[in-house]
């Protein structure tokens, strides 16, 4: 039997074939690694973000900056300014001060405008307002979190007790 000696062209083909195989194997390994990384990321994201936990945690935390308007609903001059000063000293962002549509409001009200009641409760607490006087009227036309409507009971609240 005669042994076949490979020619130069066959040797070059084998070398090129081996190089291509190595290159393809490296690509396969890299893609498998990428797929494993993406699967790991997806699993950790799904486990880490249970929707109930996230919504509950966010809903129970007041915003860092609470923007509100202060409206005089009792008709006594200077009351809204006194409340505004008190709120700003307590790190609330009062963006508007004015009169309410009427001056016959008996009890001061805190109105939640965004559906995040905890913000309105924080304002009520800072002023000494009973939580039962916190109401919700969501209005997407308002670009603020809370409306404060000062009633005739203003002299029983924190800004006037100091």
Structure description:
With 162 residues, the protein is an alpha/beta fold. It folds into two domains: 8-49; 60-161, Alpha-Beta Plaits (2-Layer Sandwich). The chain contains five helices and five strands, in the order H-H-E-H-E-E-H-E-E-H. The chain has a five-stranded mixed sheet, covered by helices on one side. It is rod-shaped and about 115 Å long. It starts with 7 loop residues before the first helix and ends with a helix. The mean pLDDT is 87.
Short description:
The chain is of the alpha/beta class and 162 residues long.
Shape: rod-shaped
The succession of helices and strands, N to C, reads HHEHEEHEEH
Distance between the termini: 114 Å
The appropriate CATH architecture of the largest domain is: 2-Layer Sandwich
Top CATH class of the largest domain? Alpha Beta
Radius of gyration: 34 Å
Overall pLDDT, averaged? Answer: 87
How many DSSP-defined strands? Answer: 5
Total DSSP helices: 5
CATH-derived topology of the largest domain: Alpha-Beta Plaits
Q: How many domains, as an integer?
A: 2
Largest sheet: 5 strands, mixed
The strand line-up of the biggest sheet is: 2-1-5-3-4
Helix percentage range: 40-55%
Structural class: alpha/beta
Uncertain stretches: none
Strand coverage percent: 15-25%
Give short descriptive properties of this protein.
162 residues; alpha/beta; Alpha-Beta Plaits; 15% strand; rod-shaped
């Amino acid at each position: 039997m005669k042994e076949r000696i490979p020619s130069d062209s066959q040797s070059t083909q084998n070398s090129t074939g081996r190089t291509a195989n190595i290159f393809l194997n490296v690509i396969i390994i890299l893609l498998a690694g990428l797929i494993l990384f993406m699967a790991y990321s997806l699993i950790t994201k799904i486990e880490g973000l249970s929707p109930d936990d996230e919504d509950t945690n966010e809903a129970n935390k007041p915003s860092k900056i609470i923007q509100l308007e202060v409206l005089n609903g009792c008709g006594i001059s200077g009351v809204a300014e006194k409340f505004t000063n008190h709120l700003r000293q307590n790190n609330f962002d009062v963006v508007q001060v004015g009169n309410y549509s009427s001056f016959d409001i008996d009890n001061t009200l805190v109105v939640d405008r965004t559906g995040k009641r905890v913000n309105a409760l924080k304002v009520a607490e800072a002023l000494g307002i009973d939580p039962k006087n916190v109401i919700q009227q969501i209005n997407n036309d308002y670009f603020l979190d809370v409306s404060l409507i000062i009633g005739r009971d203003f002299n029983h609240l924190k800004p006037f007790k100091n």
